[in-house]
Amino acid sequence: MAAARRADHDPPVATRAAVLRGVVSYLRNPSSAGLYLRGMPGIGVSTVLSSAAARTRRRGHRLIMISASPAERDVPFAGLHQMLHACRRLTAARPAIELLSAAVGGRAVQPDVVAATGSLFEAIAADGPALIVVDNAHRLDSPTAETMAGALERARVAGPAMLLGGHDAGATAWPGVPVWTLPGLPAPAARRLLQSRAPALDRWLADRILDEADGRPLALIELPTAWEGRAAPGADLLVPHAPMTTRLAQSLLEETRSLPAGAGRILLLVAGGQPWRPARLDAAAWELIGSPAAALIGSLTTAGWLTDGPDGVRLADPLLAAALMHTAAADQIPRMEDPLGSGYHGDLSTALTSPADHARALERALAPLRAGQRGERAGRGLVDGATIAADVGRFALVAPLLDQLPERINPVDAVRRDILLRSIDDPAWATVSSAESVCAVADTCRAAGNPALALDLLAGLAATITWSDTDEITRLRLLASLDELDDHQSDPRWLLVCATADPARVNGTRAEAVARGLADDRGRWWAGLAMRRLGRLASAAEVLGGVVLSLIGQRRFGLVVPAAAALADVQLLLGRWDAAQEQLRFAGAAAERTGQPVWRAYLHATTALLHAARGQFGAARSCAESAERVLGDRPVRPVRLRVAAARGTAFMGEGRLAEACVEMEPMLRSPGVRAYTVDFTVVATLYAEAAGQGAPRPEGAAVLAAAQETLRGNPSHDGDAHLRYLTILLQPPPDVETAWIDLLDRAEQLPWLQARARLHYGSWLRRQQRVTEARGQLHHAGAVFKALGAGAWSERTARELRAAGTAAPDDRPLSGLLSPQELTVVQLAATGLSNREIGARLELSPRTVGSHLARAFPKLAVSSRHQLPARLQELT
Question: What is the per-residue DSSP string for 648-706?
Fold first, then answer.
């Protein structure tokens, strides 16, 4: 109740800056006799008080400053004696000092002592503004606090301002004084402070310090010193409790000394191990303190010392746990085994939202090994620990952990190890489990009545196939294992395995609905990858977008990189190029930080293709070279296919059509790339454009046949649209116009492909002497290319328009009708973008975009956005 009342006194916006401004405002014109500034240990309350004192001195006002000591907390009137000593040179205060000196000899607070203290306060402020500063007010002895609080009420009008600072517990002694809470440093300021104190600090360790310090300046200053000499690679994950300096430990532990008997031992019990199940903690605490502990544990939870989360009860402040372990003697630390109970088998990769969570999860995984066990349980813990390290992007720790595996481990854990090595492109994976052995273990799990574990293993294998060819033997073996399982159309693992081995078996519409309804990130990642392989790009973008945001929040950088790379890839194909570029930039930085060379190469290759499509040919070649350099001799065909596409597109944009075809033909003839259906068909369409503009090439028929065979095994709406475009370019049907019209309809959700189709259709119409119709298609294509920034295709569209007897579209006829902003919004709306997408591109709200369109429609004499393309064509 008291806490709720005090919270009402906090400033309306309780940021650190707002509190500091409020303190300055109070010092200029005190609205009450006192102000209590509270904060958690190390938050910087004393620094704020010192700054206020310095400001008072600079203004020439009277300052009385005292600081309570823990040694005098139980000495009656010790704080008041400090006050008398600080006022000894004030002539006007001598009568009150003499009276108080004689009256405070006892232990009880008498009315005459309160009255004399009020007189002292009035004397302090008798000849001008004055400020009394009390630091560490929570340490004041009770008689002093009671006396000064009563005197403040008496001297409210004529007395000085008083600024008190301390921990939360001390605020209850000042019932009439407003209480403000000082928050921690904001994240940018905390990072700057840490960098200034330890500029060479390992960035992973810096993340852990920032997370545990929680904006407390003292921790940010002391922790780098404490970690000196202990910050070996991976220490931030492998050391469960942060090292402490004595100064930081004493500050953190000060409030614990006022807790009830037994509470400190319970805190130490929780600090020393993993999170506890509540019932098990009750029993262990009862055994420890010799009496029922449920009520005491409840009060500690209510007061914020403990937190009861999904993974169990733990200390709310990881630094307090470290301080307790730092100061406790070895024989004082309770040893209670298995706090979660022997039946706990949770997913160690879930709920990893901070570096401290990562360290705790890894500690839990390695607990059997540290307890001296060397059998299957220790092996499983090591594989779990390596998986956690990979999830959060700490690949340098994976090999050292797996090197400790015993010679004989459970076959399931052996397969999990090998799938992990495949997923992180460790060279060792080529010498371990093949697809055959993974599927064999999965079959054993199914036969033993554990189909969920079988699906886990098969999905893990399917996810790693990004880096290896899905040859017919692998595909058939996956299918054989899948056939032994029930049809799980609603399981993302089943969808991923099917999308890899037998896409035709998947009900695409149902799979999209399943993907949207998933809650856990691992399942959504599997589903998004399945949608990508099925060629359902819009659904893949929707699912993967949520996965990337969630993984970033959890700091699971090992999983973020492939998810962000897949999202950027899909956005590129969907024509969302600005969004794709942002994802590529972010994923590239994360891959660089975490050391994932294959994903870096993949991102370089995708960026190269984006640059080439935008007409930035030099940048495209530079990124392509970077991709090959990072890739080395790894046979990663998706990357090499992208590199060939980027170089071929650059050649095509420069008019070097034969060189473009020669660049792309070797990869398109390689059987291994056909497993990557959408990638193959997209690159094949680029090849067909180059071949169609230049001299006929005999390889064209083989490329078309390969694409048809690929799509036959993996049919999808988006893949079919690319195949139709490829067919029209390389083997035009008799009724080619019907084919063009049908393609434009099927490519409605693929603006890049649709615009390229309009360009070629418009060119065909021009050659058929249907110039007016040709201009309509070309204008529409040019508007989309302009919105995308597709420089190479924009130039070709302009050439076709000139050949059709008109200049390329310009905006001059519209400038008298529309404002520049309205014109920009209208042009983007004409390409099919929604208000939200236009707003994201122009940094406007969707509502503002709608207002621009509402004003523009009457000026253009249209009533809906569907009429905009034709109307803009007429006006330009």
Answer: HHHHHHTT-HHHHHHHHHHHHH-GGGGGSHHHHHHHHHHHHHHHHHSS--THHHHHHHH
Per-state percent for the chain, helix, strand, coil, to nearest 5:
70, 5, 30
Paired tokens of 594: 């975490």
Tokens 């854990």 appear where? Answer: 413
- Residue 377: which residues within 8 A CB-CB, separation 6 or more? 368
Distance CA 614, CA 610 (A): 6
Measured between alpha carbons, how far is 705 from 690 in angstroms, rounded to an integer?
18
Number of Cα atoms under 13 Å in the Cβ half of residue 52: 32
Cα separation, 309 vs 300, in Å, equals 14
Q: CA nearest 833: which of 874, 781, 787?
A: 787
The pair of three-digit structure tokens given for residue 276, joined into one six-digit string: 């506890």
Identity of the amino acid at 361: A
Report CA-CA distances (Å) from 703 to 320, 660, 682, 733: 65, 15, 12, 17
* Separation of alpha carbons 162 and 170, rounded Å: 15
Separation between Cα atoms, residue 96 and residue 159, nearest integer Å: 14
- DSSP character at residue 808: P
In the block, residue with structure tokens 């033993």: 448
pLDDT tens digits, 334-353: 655 445 443 333 344 444 55
- Report the distance separating Cα 292 and Cα 286, nearest Å: 5
Q: Which residue has the tokens 């060792």?
A: 428
d(CA 125, CA 161): 9
Instruction: Report strand pairing: 312-315 vs 306-309.
Output: antiparallel
Do residues 683 and 677 make contact, with C-beta atoms less than 8 angstroms apart? no
Phi, psi of 403, rounded to the nearest 5 degrees: -65, -20
C-alpha 787/C-alpha 67 separation (Å) is 65
Task: State how beta strands 161-166 and 34-38 pair.
Answer: parallel
Report the distance separating Cα 835 and Cα 818, nearest Å. Answer: 18
pLDDT of amino acid 428: 47
Predicted confidence (pLDDT) per residue in 743-792, tens digit: 898 888 788 888 999 999 998 888 888 888 888 899 888 888 888 888 87
Residues 85-104 as b or e (16 or more Cβ within 10 Å = b): eebeebeebeebbebbeebb
For the chain, which ranges sit under pLDDT 50? 1-8, 12-13, 337-338, 340-351, 428-432, 467-469, 808-811
User: Residue 59 and residue 161: Cα distance in Å, rounded?
Assistant: 14
| Nearby residues of 324 by Cβ (< 8 Å), 6 or more positions away | 253, 256, 267, 268, 271, 272, 315
pLDDT of residue 347: 45
Structure tokens at 615: 């007409």
Q: Check residue 28 and give its pLDDT.
A: 77
Residue 752 burial by CB count (10 A; 0-12/13-18/19+): exposed, middle or buried? buried
Q: Please give the Cα distance from 226 to 243 (Å, whole number).
A: 5
Helix spans in 272-333 (H): 278-289, 294-302, 318-327
| pLDDT the model gives residue 231 | 67
Cα 59 to Cα 56: distance, rounded to the nearest angstrom: 5
| pLDDT on residue 694 | 64
Report the residue count for the chain: 876
**Exposure string for 378-403, b = 16+ CB within 10 A, e = fewer:** bbbbbbbbbbbbbbbbbbebbeebbe
Placement of tokens 């070279």 in the chain: 625
183: number of Cβ within 10 Å:
18
Side-chain-side CA neighbours of 308 within 13 Å: the count stands at: 13
Residue 714's pLDDT is 60
Residue 245: how many other CB atoms lie within 10 Å: 18
